[in-house]
Amino acid sequence: MAANMADTTVEKITTNEKSTTAEEIEDTLQKEKVSMLRQPKAVWATALAAVFAFMGIGLVDPILPAIAVNLQASPSQVSLLFTSYFLVTAVAMLVTGFVSSRIGGKKTLMIGLVLIVVFASLSGMSGNVATLVGFRAGWGLGNALFVATALAVMVGVASGGTATAVILYEAALGLGLSLGPLLGALLGGWQWRAPFFGTATLMAAALIALMILLPKTPAPARRTRLRDPLLALGHPGLRTTAARALFYNYGFFTVLAFTPFILGINAYGIGAVFFGWGAAVAVFSVFVAPVLQRRFGPVPTLLGSLGALLLVLVGLGLAAGHSVPAIVVLVIIGGALLGINNTLFTELAMGVSDSPRPVASAGYNFIRWMGGALAPFAATQIAEHLGVQMPFYVAAFALLVGMGIVLAGRKYMVAHAPKGV
């Protein structure tokens, strides 16, 4: 449940003239948890489509070694499947608000889904790694149009406001990250091209569901200019939030994109590992992050989770090339910590500045996804030249930089934290 909902409820109860028992407080909180799940069909349809969209991120994880073998490519060449995808996603974030403010959220979502269907299908037909990398870039364009607009649409139609929408959005992210590798393993163990066609089929189904269930969303009264997301980053709170997310995402995607190459197991095994990783992301983003934020506050929670993730990355560096079981355990623990950070970063980015949410989201995600674009290629290049341990140590250093930015910008986090934390 969103932190501000819980704290507002407790405040109302504890300030009531009539004393209230702990049992009654708990009962009220439980009722609000249930109410969070009572959302319009449009919210669930958008969330389901977001699950399918996020599946595309980790879909290729289990089949990276197979792609390298079948297309006669090196790990660094195959890592460009992530880099092209996230680089185009990041840059396209700057135009999502421009598009959606002119044609409306629903039409923007539809265009994004159509592009994903087309380029996922084309990816499955690729005959060489360069062509596949190019089609993944087109897929990234569709992903940007969909992902950036989906959060704004969910915020607009969800019961419970921004915090509830962010929790549901992060739940979709976690489920997509967990189910993507699972689908990639199940289909990729049969044929490496199959996961791409599977994703195209799922996104086509999501397209039909949104066409039916999502009501028409009119274009906003104020049109977003192309430069607005960059201007929004002029706000020190949003700028520092985006900067720490950049370094955090570098660590995030080092784990996601590089670890499959050092596990030394088949597609089914890699899929199982990253299913557990993604499940941990989902559970901890939805159920644990809000509790920790209420209990300890945003700055201590972020510093603690980033510090723990730094230790996980160091542990992965020590285990790389020596102990596959240790790598598996650390990857799943890392997923739990990533889930906590995802929710805190996203909720903060949506409220830390005075810019409209779609504009702030576009500017934030432009910087954030750059970390996802840089990490996969950098990690494989570092490994090829310096050894398989070094990518994790570099990612740990990136986390250390992110912790420094959290400390430097803590006044913005405290000022915009949910009431009561």
Summarize the entry for a quick read.
With 421 residues, the chain is an all-alpha fold. It has helices spanning 3-14, 22-37, 41-58, 64-70, 75-103, 105-124, 129-157, 161-188, 194-213, 228-232, 236-258, 260-263, 267-296, 298-319, 324-351, 357-386, 390-408, 410-415.
Radius of gyration: 21 Å
Detail the poorly predicted runs.
1-22, 24-34
DSSP E strands, number: 0
Largest sheet: none
Per CATH, the superfamily is: MFS general substrate transporter like domains
Q: Report the order of strands and helices.
A: HHHHHHHHHHHHHHHHHH
Classify the fold: give the CATH topology.
Growth Hormone, Chain: A
Q: Looking at the structure, what is the overall shape?
A: globular
Hey, roughly how much beta strand do the residues contain? under 5%
Task: State the secondary-structure class.
Answer: mainly alpha
Describe it for me?
The chain is mainly alpha-helical. It has a single domain, classed as Up-down Bundle (Growth Hormone, Chain: A). It is built from 18 helices and no strands. Helix 14 (298-319) runs antiparallel to helix 15 (324-351).
Distinctive features:
single chain; 421 residues; mainly alpha; Growth Hormone, Chain: A; 18 helices; globular
Write the topology of this structure.
Elements: H1 3-14, H2 22-37, H3 41-58, H4 64-70, H5 75-103, H6 105-124, H7 129-157, H8 161-188, H9 194-213, H10 228-232, H11 236-258, H12 260-263, H13 267-296, H14 298-319, H15 324-351, H16 357-386, H17 390-408, H18 410-415
